[in-house]
Design brief:
Helices cover about 80% and strands about 0% of the residues. It is mostly helical and about 500 residues long. α2 packs antiparallel against α18, α11 crosses α13 and α12 runs antiparallel to α18. The longest helix has about 70 residues. The N and C termini lie close together (about 5 Å). The N terminus and C terminus are likely disordered.
Length: about 500
């Protein structure tokens, strides 16, 4: 067994297989859990949006985006650093990480409490105070979920995702129930708090290590050194989200904020599924972080797998956004069709090289992530905000497209530095190819049907889009799909498992 294989075996129970097989199975486990749960979250947003309307949904949009983006600053790489470390005493390592996370969470809860009256004054809506306080209480519940990191580092994804499923499932039930009962935006606020605390209690009680505080200034310095570029990147993302909502409310009112929040939920959905793939492979790439050849193969294949669904999903959102309004959430959201379409395309294209930063984090090279995020933020502030002021939602859509172009260009640059053999154009063409015939087929059918739209016609077009995309994906990616299916076969007793990424492992 090679050195990389020993490193993997020491941290992960491979159950007689290779790290490649374990990661492939983990991707499916995570996919089954998270795609379903994130879809549940997306449906929750659309269902509640249909019940509440744009203005009332806008109140939730301000609370959610304001304080969720503040939480981005809290995600300063503590979990990434914990997964990456190889200390001899793993229980002590967890306790140190838990202590650091509590310190960071406490600091940001104080920051949020201080921000609540400021947010209410800036937006001119006193009704923001009470739901914001409840949202901060929900953050305390989420801090109790830190022990789930242990299962994540071990790549015990079934246990990890079972515990994490409590939050979105319970939150969905509570939110929809309260919305139907007439609780308004409080249904979303209370649903978030109940889900976070219930999941936190379950994870805390099931921790395989003793949960205690263990402070070590030396370890804190290590976390800070690793995490400050990630903090800077989160701060840039915070500026993007907060400025879009703040300026959007001033220019468009609460209804406009509601549209921006709903359109953003589409990108968040796509990003979360991307995060699922990245989170699955991150412990594995940390285990072999010194093997550039293994990292390159892992990047290319994981990205191709994500693009099989991500790009068709984004383009599909753009194609069927008008139908979603007409036959789904209601004509009250008609003004947001264009923005939803642009966000859909951006979400699809964002899958190209989406997990580049995980490979830099695994190698403890986090500065490029800060540079990328800062330049994206600069393009947003310089282009998108002025266009939003000048031309409303249409201007914001153009500005978001510009920022997405900057983001993709920088991503390709840093991937080229890490993987000199990466063929960028070929990768993009392969990703886009299955979606082209599917899109053309839908547009051709619409030309035949004419301008009159019915729900049956929309569903028929959607089915056609899915089928054509699936057929061309199978034709173009059959070798990779066959390979993935092979990873899922458990090795027979008495036989040697296939080596990790073509090397002895």
């Amino acid at each position: 067994m090679s050195e990389s294989g020993n490193a993997a075996a020491e941290r992960i129970d491979l159950a007689g297989g290779s790290l490649r097989q374990h990661a492939a199975r983990g991707t499916l486990v995570n996919g089954a859990f998270l795609i379903g749960l994130y879809t549940l979250g997306l449906l929750r947003g659309f269902i509640v949006a249909g019940i509440l309307g744009a203005a009332e949904y806008g109140v939730w949009g301000i609370v959610m985006i304001t304080f969720t983006t503040l939480l981005w600053l809290k995600q300063v790489g503590v979990v990434d650093r914990y997964v990456q470390q190889d200390e001899a005493d793993q229980e002590a390592a967890f306790q140190r990480a838990f202590t650091v996370e509590l310190i960071v969470t406490g600091a940001f809860m104080l920051l949020m409490l201080a921000a609540i009256p400021v947010v209410a004054v800036v937006y001119g809506h006193g009704e923001l105070v009470a739901p914001s306080l409840v949202f901060v209480v929900a953050i305390a519940g989420s801090a109790l979920q830190v022990p789930v990191w242990i299962y994540y580092r071990r790549m015990d994804f079934v246990r990890q995702r079972t515990l994490q499923a409590i939050d979105p499932v319970l939150g969905f039930v509570v939110t929809i129930g309260l919305a139907v009962a007439g609780a308004g935006y409080w249904s979303l606020v209370v649903g978030a708090a109940v889900g976070a605390w219930a999941a936190g209690a379950a994870v805390f009680a099931s921790s395989p290590y003793r949960v205690r505080l263990r402070y070590d200034p030396g370890v804190l310095r290590q976390y800070v050194s690793f995490s400050w570029p990630l903090f800077a990147a989160a701060a840039s993302s915070l500026v993007i989200a907060q400025s879009s909502i703040l300026v959007g409310e001033q220019v468009l009112g609460l209804a406009g904020v509601g549209i921006i929040a709903l359109a953003s939920s589409i990108s968040n959905y796509a990003n979360r599924v991307d995060e699922m793939v990245t989170q699955t492979i991150y412990p594995a790439i940390c285990a072999v972080r010194d093997r550039t050849d293994l990292l390159f193969e892992t990047f290319v294949k994981s990205n191709r797998l994500a693009l099989m669904w991500g790009l068709p999903f984004g383009v599909g959102v753009a194609l069927f956004a008008s139908d979603l309004v007409q036959f789904g959430i209601g004509e009250r959201w008609r003004a947001g069709v264009g923005l939803i379409q642009v966000f859909g395309v951006i979400a699809g294209l964002a899958h190209i090289g989406f997990n580049w930063d995980a490979f830099y984090r695994a190698r403890a090279e986090t500065r490029p992530i800060a540079v990328w995020s800062f330049l994206c933020m600069l393009s947003f502030v310089a282009v998108a905000i002025p266009l939003l002021i000048a031309d409303g939602l249409d201007g914001l859509a153009i500005g978001m497209a510009v920022m997405a172009t900057v983001s993709l260009s920088l991503r390709m640059y840093y991937l080229g530095r890490l993987f000199p053999d990466f063929r960028i154009i070929r990768h993009i063409v392969r990703a886009v190819a299955p979606t082209i015939p599917a899109t053309l087929a839908v547009l051709a059918l619409r030309a035949v049907d004419g301008a009159h739209r019915t729900l049956a016609a929309a569903l028929a077009e959607l089915a056609l889009y899915v089928i054509v995309t699936a057929v061309f994906t199978l034709l173009l990616e059959r070798d990779l799909l066959r390979e993935v299916v092979g990873y899922l076969r458990r090795p027979q007793v008495g036989t040697e498992s296939r080596p990790l990424v073509g090397q002895s492992a």
